[in-house]
Amino acid sequence: METVTPSHYLCLSLCLFSIGFLGVLLRRNLLLVLMSLELMLNGINLALVNFSRTSLNLDGSIFVFFIMTVAAAEVAVGLALLVALYKRRNSVFSEDINLIHN
Amino acid sequence: MIQVALSLLLLPLLSAIVTLLFLRKHGNIAALLSVATAGGILAFSSYLIFGNETGSVFAWSTPWFSLSNWQLDFGFLIDSPAKTLLFVVSFVGLLIHIFSLGYMADDQAKARYFGGLSIFMFSMLGITLADNLVMIFVFWELVGFSSYLLIAHYFKTDEAAKASRKAFIVNRVGDFGFLLGIIFTYWTFGTVNLQELSVTANLDPSLTSTILCLLLACGFIGKSAQFPLHVWLPDAMAGPTPVSALIHAATMVAAGIFLLIRIEFLFTAEAFKLIGLLGAVMGLYAGFCALTQRDIKKVLAYSTLSQLGYMAAAFGLGLPGIALFHLMTHAFFKALMFLGSGSVIHACHHEQDIFAYGGLRKKMPITAYTFLIGVMAISGVHFLSGYFSKDAILLGAYNLDFVIFCILYAGAVLTALYMFRLYFLTFCGAARSKSSSEAKESTIFMTGPLLILGVLSVLGGFHAFYPSQIVEFLLPDIARVADMPNHLWMNVLGLVAWVGGLVLARKIYGAQSGDKDPLAEKSPALFQLSNSKLFFDEIYSFYVKKIQDPFFRFLEVMELLFISGLLVRGSAGVAALFALLGKSFYSGKIHSYSFWFVSGTIGFLAYAIFSGGSN
Amino acid sequence: MVCSKHPVSAAMFMIISLVGVAALFVLLEAFFLAVLQILVYAGAVMVLFLFIIMLLDVGPQGGKASKMKLISGLAAGFTVSLLLVIFLIVVQNSGWLGEHSTWLPVDNEAAMTQGENLSFSTSVKSFGYGLMTKYMFPLQISGFLLLAAMVGVIVLSKNNEKEAG
Known about the structure:
The complex is a heterotrimer. Chain A is 76% helix and 0% strand. By secondary structure, chain A is mostly helical. Chain A starts with 5 loop residues before the first helix and ends in a 13-residue tail after the last helix. Chain B has helices at 2-22, 27-50, 80-103, 110-129, 133-151, 158-189, 194-203, 210-223, 232-235, 241-250, 252-262, 269-290, 296-316, 320-347, 360-363, 365-379, 385-400, 402-427, 434-437, 444-459, 468-471, 474-482, 487-509, 518-522, 524-532, 536-583, 590-610, and strands at 58-66, 71-78. Chain C is mainly alpha-helical. Chain C folds into 3 domains: 1-60, NADH-ubiquinone/plastoquinone oxidoreductase chain 6, subunit NuoJ (Four Helix Bundle (Hemerythrin (Met), subunit A), Up-down Bundle), CATH 1.20.120.1200; 62-92; 116-158. Chain C has helices spanning 7-27, 31-56, 64-94, 124-133, 136-156. In chain C, helix 1 packs antiparallel against helix 2. The longest helix of chain C has 31 residues, at 64-94.
């Protein structure tokens, strides 16, 4: 391929998203789970900006703006929850917060 | 009339309920309540019998419950046979209640006994008054239940418990046939109401069939202990003696005959013949078995079986009125003899072996002489009550069916023989055991009814003495027999029968001094045959143990495997599988939760994108 | 980032990743968003993450289980990437994207003259214009959202022990 086409960006966005997804599923450290969640959101942002550029519509970009806002708020609350959890269980690993003892 | 009939029916039920709820520990009050109820029953029945003039029939019914196209009625039919039976049941019932006051005076569980008697009166009156077959069946079962209750009065003994179970189960076998008969009747005729049935059957005699009659007669065979379901009656003697008198002599076993009379219009000629033959054979067989019994009550039980056979034979000859007549006189003298035996048993401290009695005539004169009257009545001594009804049956048999006559006549000879044997062994000679030498006459509660029944046994055969309402059903057949020839010859034969029996008994048993039955020494083969009762009990228990039980055990295994195992626990297992599947989702691990969450979302998305959707 | 052992390394890698995404935004001529990405994500969110890592003193994940997870994670990632490359080729050649297959030139002047139909432009002004006209309501809501998040965080980190006296 000679030029970079929108589908490249789409593919990259998908990459980011799936890497983040796998990180959410497979990591035991809850902090890293949250970070992977952020990665997923970034992938989505990339896809949105891409489509905004190709359709020449600013709506996509503005939506990305809002996503970033919400993501920031969400990270804040998520981390506060994590800290509260840490105070209870003294650990940030997912197997330690399991109440069902199998 | 309706209110009187309803109160008549419900009065004993009320007494039973009151006894059950409040008087469990107060046996004496329960006893008095029960006797008062019996008196009330007599009063109400008298009103029902004499309230209207002769020949009137009172019929009333009300729907009890109705399904979509079938309705069950609850109603009364008080016609002539019902009036006769009502008189017998209430009168004899009252006398037995009074007797029970004396006999059960030192019993521990009086309330249970008298409550059971009240339930029995309720059920028996139900059968008497019922106007449709299903209602008869309901009360039939209730009578069987009260019999079960009362036989098992001394339930702590093994004998009584087994006997009551046996009675109920054998009865049930007969009732199964009865139920099939009722269903068949409904199928053929479209109704179970007795009056409608009689109208329909008379209009179109071809509708009925012998099978139908025999199925309905299964109820009679079970309840009145005819062949082959007769095995329960001798064992039922394990109950208290007044119970034996009331239920197993005078009334319940007579309910079978009453049923036959009620459905007489359905009977075909073959059915009549069969019932007649069955009854005659029973009369002979039971008489034969009674010859070697040692227990006083068992002798009387076999005697009842024999007389029921006579009634059935009379019915089979086409003389239902005579059958009812014999029922009435039999109720009097059999109840008399049972109550007399009760008096003897009570006086000898519950010793029941007749070879342990002897010489009681001097110690208990009233009992002895009334018992003698009963013995003479059943043997057909001339001009006592039994003579009239028995003579009528024999005369009818002689003229209508000679085979039946021969069988019945042989039975009559045996009857006289064993009855006088009973009398001589019990009351004559010297006392053969300690209990009989210490006996003394019973209280007025017991001797009073004996005297009244004695009078009735003497005079009961003169149907002219009765008010016409009571004998209304009997008169046509009595007149029919009176018109038959060979009266004199029959009288001679009858004389031969009872005199022969009396003499033979005197010869063999008159000088009894030991414990052994003299017949055993004189003709052991005869003795063994009679004692074996033709092995009916053995045959039945063989069947139950060897054939029925293994089969049912096999069914039980099948049921355990397939129904409990496969169906019930299998379906539970399938549900449990689903539960396990659901449970696997609850791991507590955050990762699995998020995994399933995302999977579900992806699934939804896939569904939304790749199916449906207009975009 | 996803595979690293130490959370701090993961955070570092994340920052690099986010800066890369910002660079891609620049390439896509969404300059405002690129700067915003650096400022908000890399600057605030990741710093917050680092704060928490330092606060909770989270050590490296060790043990045999994490090794297995690592390898399986790597394998899964590799498979997914392969699939994605294939997807890329397929999508590019099938024309599935339709009108989104190529870039068109951007016309900055037309951005603010349209009404409801916002046109893509590289200037921040048009961004602000869009925010204040078409997306006014979401803007206000996001303000409230941030307020709520702040209050929530304060409540969540409150100490539950009762003070004596």
